[in-house]
Amino acid sequence: MIDRAFALLGAFDSDHRALTPADLARRSGTPRSTALRLARSLVQVGALERRDDGRFVVGLRLLSPCRFQPP
């Protein structure tokens, strides 16, 4: 499951910053229903955002500095 989520995130690049669900599925090599389900899960945790036009973009959570503090 994690490998598919990373495949979705890897579908984005500097030339492809906003992707439709079909684009996301095609570029990640994931079936469309799976891509959409994973994308919705990634939206819930802030890794992706869904724009009003239905396209997905990388979420602010992935763009912000890591808050992890080692013990």
Please provide a written account of the structure.
The protein is mainly alpha-helical. It has one domain: Arc Repressor Mutant, subunit A (Orthogonal Bundle). 48% of the residues lie in helices and 11% in strands. It is built from four helices and three strands. A three-stranded antiparallel sheet has the order 1-3-2. A hairpin with a 5-residue loop joins strand 2 and strand 3. It is globular.
What attributes characterize this protein structure?
mainly alpha, 71 residues, 11% strand, Arc Repressor Mutant, subunit A, 3-stranded antiparallel sheet, 4 helices
**CATH overall fold name:** Arc Repressor Mutant, subunit A
Radius of gyration: 12 Å
| CATH architectural arrangement | Orthogonal Bundle
CATH class: Mainly Alpha
The main sheet orders its strands as 1-3-2
Q: Provide the residue-averaged pLDDT.
A: 89
Q: How would you sum up the major sheet?
A: 3 strands, antiparallel
Characterize this entry briefly.
With 71 residues, this protein is mostly helical. Helices cover 48% and strands 11% of the residues. It is built from four helices and three strands.
What's the helix and strand layout?
Layout: H1 2-10, E1 18-19, H2 21-28, H3 32-44, E2 48-50, E3 56-58, H4 60-63
Antiparallel strand pairs: 1-3, 2-3
Helix pairs in contact: 1-2, 2-3
